[in-house]
Write a structure and sequence with these properties.
Length: 324
């Protein structure tokens, strides 16, 4: 079986697939295939490893009928037309669990960095504007005993809630499609409606997986329902929020601060007005950027494609219904 990788993945995944006898076509790091090479190489392959959420839609499947399996190098799969994949009986693999700790670490980091105005003060030091103790300086806020509102209590949301509770004794409330009694027990968490989550949270942290219908759910109206001293954190998908509305909500002091690891669109322009605000921190989608998480993701990709090459179901598959 021949596999096309649109970007290299960590060595552990390459090694596993090569040892299993898979033939890999991989561009060099920082030297992507040209459009022509890409089309040519994809045509030679039976499966693809998708790094970086490239769209896998109807047009992709039409142009590449030879591709019979996709292994996403991500837990999210909102870039894939799952209905079309199901129709064509193409399994889509992903990487759940292995990046939950790393991604929730970034949400936790953003929450604290924003609460203590980290971007503002870091810029101050870098620009030589640190002149000593200044009573006029902006003040941050503390998180002890506050309420964390998790939007999407899956594996990543759970890890974030655990840290908030352990470090700051925060109360945990959450909103999901349905309650999760197991997580509630461990966290002492309370399931609430979306409006209650907005009304009662000191920090709203988005961890849901993105699905159609959720586009820019966090808009002017929703920010208007949050506490004026609340912090908005998004480490899930930028499509969940409207960035102009977020800027206005911050500027008009409808909410207090925001930390984003995902933006809408990505990459964010360096001229984006959000970057001028003291109580905002933006990171370039680095949730899974640790050695441990990326190695785990590479292992899952390899396990998925090795299983596929043997005619077995992918062990980490988002559409197991294709196996009937
Ligand atoms: C994921 O795994 O979904 C991360 O957001 C990287 O895209």
């Amino acid at each position: 079986m021949r596999v096309f990788l649109n970007q290299p993945i960590p060595a552990i995944g390459i090694q596993m697939m090569e040892e299993a006898g898979l033939d890999l076509i991989i561009p060099e790091l920082r030297n992507p295939f040209s459009d022509h090479e890409r089309i040519k190489y994809l045509k030679l392959c039976d499966a693809m490893v998708n790094v970086g959420l490239e769209p896998i839609n109807k047009s992709f499947f039409e142009k590449n009928p030879q591709i019979k399996a996709i292994a996403q190098f991500s837990v999210g799969y909102n870039n894939v037309d799952i209905d079309e994949a199901n129709r064509l009986k193409i399994p889509i693999g992903n990487t759940p669990g292995v990046l939950s700790k790393a991604t929730s670490d970034v949400a936790f980091l953003l929450m604290q960095f924003v609460a203590r105005l980290g971007s503002f003060y870091y810029d101050k030091v870098k620009s030589g504007d640190w002149h000593g103790f200044d009573m006029e300086d902006l003040l941050g806020i503390e998180l002890y005993g506050k309420t964390i509102g998790i939007f999407g209590m899956g594996r990543i949301g759970f890890e974030m809630a655990k840290k908030c509770k352990a470090a700051f004794g925060m109360n945990v409330i959450y909103h999901n499609r349905k309650p999760n009694p197991e997580y509630e027990k461990v966290l002492g968490a309370k399931y609430v409606s979306f409006d209650e989550l907005l009304k009662d949270s000191d920090v709203v942290s988005v961890h849901a997986s993105f699905s159609p219908g959720c586009e820019e759910l966090f808009n002017a109206e929703v920010f208007g329902k949050m506490k004026t001293d609340a912090i908005f954190i998004n480490t899930a998908r930028g499509d969940f929020h409207n960035e102009k509305d977020l800027y206005n909500a911050l500027n008009e002091k409808k909410i207090w601060g925001a930390g984003l690891d995902v933006t809408n669109p990505e990459p964010m322009s360096r001229h984006n007005q959000l970057l001028k605000l003291p109580n905002v921190c933006v990171l370039p989608h680095i949730g899974s950027s640790t050695v441990e998480a990326r190695d785990g993701m590479a292992r899952y990709v390899a396990e998925n494609l090795i299983a596929f090459s043997k005619g077995q179901p992918m062990p980490h598959c988002v559409n197991p219904e294709v196996y009937g």
